Amino acid sequence: MSIQGNQGNAPAPRRRTVLPFVKIKSPKDYINMYREWWPIGLIVGVIVGVAVGAYQFTKPPVYRTEASLLFVTNPDKVVNIQEVVDTSMKNASELNSHIEQIKSQSFFDYVQSFITKEESEKIRRPYADKDDPTKMPSLASIIMPNIDVYARRNTTIVGISVRNRDPEAAAIIANRYARKYIDYNLDRASTGTQSAIVFLQSQADDLRRKVEQSEKDLQDYRARYNLASLGDNQNVILQRVQTVGTSLIQAQIARINLESQVDKVSKIKESGGNLLDVDFIASFGTIPDLQKQIDQLRADRVQLEQRYLAKHPKMIANASALETAQQQLKENIGKAVSELNERYNLAKAYEDRLNTEKAEADRESQRLDKISVEYKFIENQADLAKSAYSKILDRLNETTISSQLDSVNIKLFDQAWVPSTPVEPNLRSATFQSSFLAIVCLLFVPVLIGTFDTRLKAAWEIEELLGQTLLGEIPSLSKIEMKERLHAVEIGADEIVSEAFRGLYGQMRLNSTVPHPKIMLVTSTVPAEGKS
Fold first, then answer.
1. Is the pTM of this model over 0.85?
2. pLDDT at 18
């Protein structure tokens, strides 16, 4: 109830007051809300808890079972052969890849192809429509949401947990998933190995043809250039070049020596000198002996001249012998000059022939070098083809052996059992959920109701709403009879009520500056709020 003084003579027009949402200012307000509305929160909490608990026990029972797989990190090997499809596990990320593959749609499709019609009906029957039992959901909608695959902590064991309304169906699904994942990897490894064998065999055939063609090209090349062995031919040519080069140097030296003596003979002839100063002529044939003979005859003549006259027979014989010897010497010198010129010409011809042979040997060496480059290229191609063919054959043999070995490192660690008791509904879980929801309702429903409750309940709310100071509060008159309420202050029906009216009157006198007579308007928002 709002009480205000009016300074005018006319009554103020009556307006309907609309109370806005009151903002909460402190935690104390939440406490007041909770104190006011906690019974409703308790009732709602009990209803929700009981309803949730009852709903839990109305659901069909669900059974859970689990199968597990062991992933061997270092499997034993009969032979040290690299597999085509490596299923060994090296780190945790590969284990996560296996987990994701088990949960994948593609693997479910693989498993589904091995589920018989009877097993499918057994799995789907508990989920059939109550009104129409012939309507049953698909296997995917039943199995995939109710399967959980996880790695056990600090191990390489993967658990496959399955939930189903039929305990035998749950065990069937878990065991089928575990066993078929091993088969799935075996099929994948076998398929990859067989594909690799086909590929390697094709490559081996191609490389064998290349090797045969390379060998044929080498034979044709050797036949075309008449090469029994390129290396031997090159060695022969190299030795020939070296020999001819050595002989050419010697011939050049001999020719230079002879040439110098021929030039010396020419100069001596031009100057009229003694040809015996030429070493070749001085040592040619019998010239040294004739030279000695002439010297001896001259020495004898000197002695004879001391004893005999010119006409003496000994002097005549000496002169005749000396003349004969000189004539022979002259003839031998002529022969020596001719021999020197002949030797010089022969040396020059020999040198020219050696130059020709060396040029031919050089050309042959260059030709063999050029042939060698082409030959080496063809030979290298043949060697590469042989090496690749050998490697492909080795890998083909390894792959063939690998296809005959069990190379999958996944083992069935534990198979699923048929559970005897359901995991749902669970009394402990249902009790916990019901209690939790009841407590949530008990705590938050009072606050929620109080937040949306816009009624005025305290004096400060009225002051904040109207922006005016409250003059006083009149308590409820419910304890005073109806006929006495109009004169409650006059007759003193209730001292508290009387004191409240007197306090209100005193505040009006103290705060009002309007002179007498005064007019007081009493109003409220709805009927029966105490205006009378």
1. no
2. 42
